[in-house]
Amino acid sequence: MPKAGRVHSTPQRIASKSPPIRETAAVPDAELIRTCITYVQSAVAWNIGFDVDETGDNEFAQEVGDKYRRARNRAAIDATELTPQTWFGLFAKARLASVLLDDVVNSRNAINAHEVSYLVAFARDVERLTKDAIRAGWEAEKARDAA
After folding, report:
1. In this predicted structure, what is the pLDDT of residue 35?
2. 37 exposed, middle or buried (CB, 10 Å; 0-12, 13-18, 19+)?
3. In the chain, where are the structural domains located?
4. Helix residue ranges per DSSP H, the chain
5. Cα(15)–Cα(37) distance, rounded to whole angstroms?
6. Angle at 118 between CA 117 and CA 124, to 5 degrees
7. How far apart are the first and last CA of the chain?
8. Which letter, b or e, does each residue of 78-117 get, where b requires 16 or more Cβ atoms within 10 Å of its Cβ?
9. 40-72 pLDDT tens trace
10. Which of 29, 49, 57, 134 is most deeply packed, by most CB within 10 A?
11. What local confidence, expressed as pLDDT, does residue 33 receive?
């Protein structure tokens, strides 16, 4: 009996579970938010490699994870230089700070100079964005007390 030839079928398209990427021109802090996401994802990727590498010297995790460490440092530098214009941007910077400090507290990583600079810039951003809101609250309270 002759052998059947290979059947070529049309590849099936797999539906994407993620929503379509929207235009970000309307989001003033889009670059900052993406940068913070890059930092957090790189930090998680770097850390999880060490959880998997049980060889004793973490040589494999170090080698494979080096690109994540570099991406994390670059994102820390970029996030330091980007100033949030909205509460969304400030929230993204707060989440980055939370992940950074959680790593330090849990002794996974020592804080580096880029991350220290980031934390200083973040504190200044919080002060700058909240100053007007706090001042408006004080003035409203004074007006209420005067009435």
Report:
1. 97
2. middle
3. 30-146
4. 30-52, 59-81, 87-105, 113-146
5. 24
6. 95
7. 101
8. bbbebebeeeebbebbeebbebbeebeeeeebeeeebbee
9. 999 999 888 888 888 888 889 889 889 999 999
10. 29
11. 97
By the 8 A CB rule, do 122 and 94 touch?
A: yes
Low-confidence winner among 14-28, 38-52, 130-144 (lowest mean pLDDT): 14-28
Token pair for 136: 């408006």
- Nearest-angstrom CA–CA distance, 23 and 129: 25
Residue 58 gets the label, from left (phi > 0), alpha (psi -120 to 50) or beta, of left
Residue bearing the bigger pLDDT, 9 or 127: 127
Tokens 């309307």 belong to 26
Distances (CA, A) of 112 to 2, 86, 115, 118, 119: 68, 27, 5, 10, 11
Q: What tokens appear for 130 in the block?
A: 């909240």
Which amino acid is located at 79 in the chain?
A
What percent of the chain is predicted at pLDDT more than 70? 82
